[in-house]
User: Which sequence fits this backbone?
């Protein structure tokens, strides 16, 4: 990191004597000024709160301590006790990951898409794995409710950390208090381990595996939407690319996945994704939104999704609601939506395509001949002719206009196709 | 010596040509005018058709959004022109059949039967063609303000101005325009009626009022023996009429930001949103407190940045409010400039005399002549009562204005097309 120039430090000191200390973590003057202002507002609020209790507070001292803490790299959000996540103010505490604005952008975008979708079930079930502060379910509910109120919502946040679950429950209570019109909504938070195998032996007081926990809590086994912002930083990247305040003060548990022996150092960040896809399969979700570190990881995860027979995969950038202007619009056949760095992977199957207003890509994008051959070949003997046409069984004759005109499939009609199997 | 008394030549010729007058009045009737299309319009339609053809060829090679949009705009004109040409052709064919002496009687009967139907088709086609071509005045849909002031001619002009005001009020009543007298001041400076008028502002509060009354702006000349005249001489005086579109401020409040008419409306597509992105990886790697948002309105290059709050959505909201009010201010200034320019162009200060008249009301001959369209009607009383005859005159002026507009358009287009070549 480049040294801060003396001129900048001097300039900062001329404005306020506390500013030079804040320049360390902030790196530029305007954001240092903003942080100082927010800290000062926080101190005022705190002083007012104390004086209500009949207590007194030395404002200047508190501000000075806070600035000193911040100068060491302690995250501002922990100092102020909250962070804005979309429209919500989420409480933050050391030991639980601070919500990031990029996550808010993609969750908001997803909630908007789903909120304006047709054909939703009467109860929409949203599962959030590795929920942390509980920000994702709470924001999803907030955004979804602003669009639709005729559909019941069931939200479940899952985390392995007891601290996180306690904080998430606190956040839920606080937000539901301020927001009375929440009805037909059930938000729950549950302690469970996404990674552990339900059939393996486990220690007595360790969290249950996800599937067992769902059973144990008598929660539904099938869900509609799965969102997750799992730990995705590989140990190497944690050492080299993370910011100092993240590395030093945020929980490693929420950032770096546990290591499996034998995985390459690049893939050490990907530990969670196969487990999440397995959970998606078990709970039969229709839409999956996963946050990733960058475009490379996005592509790795997207390929994983393709292997697992999702109907479609997309990569969303930091701002998925903006028009893509810089990066190529597709990479390796996977469309990239939005502006900024590759941030999340979205995949869908079945009716999820309709919710996201995607065409049922499974049939139309693949060559028709291939589809027909794959679906029909096990049951009927298809005759291949020399001129690259396919002889189809005659029961498909009524669909000939579609076959021939719309898909341009060269077809000849078998005279005895029906007899072969019947 | 002649036995007959002397008769002026004009009167003689009028006696001699009653048929002429009949025919000329038929030219003004609606049935025959709607069949013909003004030549200026027709040539514009043809040029559009040729451009349409070029665009189609261009689009066949490769897609271009702008060209496709233009093509869509032109296609209505092109189809209307095709219909019109087809109808025109069949009419000429039928007429030639009828006039041909060698046509056998059976065919003749058929042709003359068909002619009427084809005529109506042609009339429809030509009205379609005109409506598809004529540029609509940007303010035509708005309500308007009609200001009447006496010009040259002293108190007679003031009396005539009062007559005009009553004429327009009667016209509004007959044609279901809501009118409202905003200001009325007589020469004594009071609001008492019956005394010569010094200034009146009539607000016509119906939609499309500006489109209808736009033709009335200008100097109206009167030729009559004034009530104030003692020796029976005919005077010529004038009154000026200003017509201005009324842009209602109340409808441009901050409340209707979704209404495209409003000053506060901004098309979200025209705004570029920039948020401070984390340098490098972002996501879990960094823990940014930057929440600054910058909005840039691309057409006007106005930009607003906001970093007061820790919440990015809140900053965005504030930035939008600020951008809206800045753009609204810009637009208001621009509109005020336009209004000033328009006020000057409607009737220049120097052009208020008797000579620069747009219409003459002649009591002696019971005649009203509009000097722009060249229409003359003879039912002065009906005109002054705001009746059917007045609407006829106004209609003719609107047609004339439309032709002028099209000519101006053609003139504008010509250099552009030269430039392209």
Assistant:
């Amino acid at each position: 990191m480049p040294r801060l120039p003396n001129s900048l430090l001097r300039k900062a000191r001329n404005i306020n004597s506390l500013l030079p200390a804040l320049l360390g973590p902030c790196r530029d003057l305007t954001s240092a000024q903003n942080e100082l202002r927010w800290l000062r507002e926080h101190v005022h609020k705190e002083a007012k709160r104390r004086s209500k209790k009949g207590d007194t507070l030395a404002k200047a001292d508190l501000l000075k301590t806070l600035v000193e803490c911040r100068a060491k790299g302690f995250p501002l959000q922990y100092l102020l006790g909250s962070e804005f996540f979309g429209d919500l103010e989420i409480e933050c505490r050391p030991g639980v990951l601070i919500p990031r604005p990029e996550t808010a952008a993609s969750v908001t975008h997803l909630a908007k898409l789903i909120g304006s979708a047709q054909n939703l079930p009467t109860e929409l079930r949203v599962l959030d794995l590795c929920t942390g502060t509980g920000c994702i379910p709470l924001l999803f509910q907030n955004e979804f409710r602003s669009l639709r109120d005729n559909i019941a919502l069931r939200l479940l946040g899952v985390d392995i950390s007891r601290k996180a679950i306690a904080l998430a429950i606190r956040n839920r209570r606080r937000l539901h208090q301020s927001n009375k019109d929440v009805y037909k909504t059930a938000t729950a938070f549950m302690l469970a381990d996404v990674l552990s195998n339900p059939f393996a032996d486990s220690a007595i007081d360790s969290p249950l595996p996800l599937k067992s926990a769902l059973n144990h809590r008598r929660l539904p086994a099938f869900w509609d939407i799965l969102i997750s912002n799992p730990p995705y930083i590989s140990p190497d990247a944690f050492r080299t690319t993370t910011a100092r305040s993240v590395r030093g003060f945020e929980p490693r548990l929420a950032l770096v996945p546990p290591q499996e022996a034998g995985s390459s150092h690049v893939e050490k960040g990907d530990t969670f994704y196969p487990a999440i896809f397995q959970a998606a399969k078990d709970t039969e979700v229709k839409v999956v939104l996963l946050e990733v570190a960058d475009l490379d990881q996005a592509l790795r995860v997207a390929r994983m999704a393709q292997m697992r027979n999702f109907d479609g995969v997309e990569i969303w950038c930091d701002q998925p609601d903006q028009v893509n202007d810089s990066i190529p619009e597709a990479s390796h056949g996977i469309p990239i939506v939005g502006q900024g760095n590759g941030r999340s992977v979205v995949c869908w199957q079945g009716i999820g395509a309709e919710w996201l207003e995607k065409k049922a890509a499974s049939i139309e994008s693949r060559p028709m001949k291939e589809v027909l051959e794959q679906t029909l070949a096990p049951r009927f003997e298809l005759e291949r002719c020399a001129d690259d046409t396919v002889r189809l069984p005659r029961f498909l004759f009524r669909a000939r206009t579609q076959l021939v005109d719309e898909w341009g499939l060269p077809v000849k009609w078998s005279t005895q196709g029906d007899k072969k199997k019947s | 010596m002649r036995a007959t008394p002397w008769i002026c030549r004009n009167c003689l010729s009028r006696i001699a040509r009653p048929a002429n007058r009949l025919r000329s009045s038929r030219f003004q009737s609606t049935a025959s005018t709607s069949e013909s299309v003004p030549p200026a319009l027709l040539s514009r339609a043809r040029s559009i058709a040729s451009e349409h053809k070029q665009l189609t060829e261009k689009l066949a090679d490769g897609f271009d959004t702008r060209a496709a949009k233009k093509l869509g705009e032109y296609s209505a004109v092109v189809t209307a022109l095709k219909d019109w040409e087809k109808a025109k052709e069949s009419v000429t064919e039928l007429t030639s059949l009828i006039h041909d002496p060698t046509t056998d009687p059976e065919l003749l009967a058929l042709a003359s039967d068909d002619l009427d139907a084809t005529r109506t088709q042609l009339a429809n086609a030509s009205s379609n063609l005109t409506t598809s071509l004529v540029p609509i005045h940007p303010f035509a849909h708005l309500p308007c303000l009609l200001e009447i002031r006496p010009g040259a001619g002293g108190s007679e002009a003031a009396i005539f101005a009062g007559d005009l005001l009553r004429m327009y009020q009667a016209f509004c009543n007959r044609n279901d325009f809501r009118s409202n007298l905003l200001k009325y001041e007589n020469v004594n400076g009071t609001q008492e009626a019956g005394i010569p008028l010094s200034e009146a502002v009539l607000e016509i509060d119906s939609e499309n009022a500006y489109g209808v009354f736009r033709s009335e702006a200008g100097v109206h000349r009167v030729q009559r023996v004034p009530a104030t005249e003692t020796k029976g001489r005919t005077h010529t005086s004038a009154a000026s009429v200003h017509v201005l579109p009324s842009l209602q401020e109340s409808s441009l409040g901050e409340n209707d930001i979704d209404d495209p008419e409003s000053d506060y409306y901004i098309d979200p597509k025209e705004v570029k949103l920039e948020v401070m992105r984390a340098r490098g990886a972002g996501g879990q790697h960094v823990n940014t407190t930057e929440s600054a948002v910058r909005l840039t309105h691309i057409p006007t290059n106005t930009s607003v940045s906001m970093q007061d709050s820790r919440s990015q959505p809140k900053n965005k909201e504030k930035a939008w409010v600020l951008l809206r009010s800045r753009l609204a201010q810009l637009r208001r200034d621009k509109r005020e400039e336009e209004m000033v320019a328009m006020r000057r162009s409607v009737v220049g200060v120097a052009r208020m005399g008797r000579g620069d008249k747009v219409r003459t009301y002649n009591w002696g001959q019971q005649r009203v002549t509009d000097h722009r369209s060249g229409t003359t009607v003879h039912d002065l009383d009906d005109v002054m009562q705001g009746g059917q005859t007045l609407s006829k005159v106004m209609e003719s002026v609107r047609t004339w204005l439309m032709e002028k507009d099209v000519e101006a358009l053609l003139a504008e287009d010509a250099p552009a097309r030269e430039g392209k070549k």
In short: Chain A touches chain B through 45 residues (CB under 8 Å). Residues 371 and 377 of chain A are 10 Å apart (CA to CA).
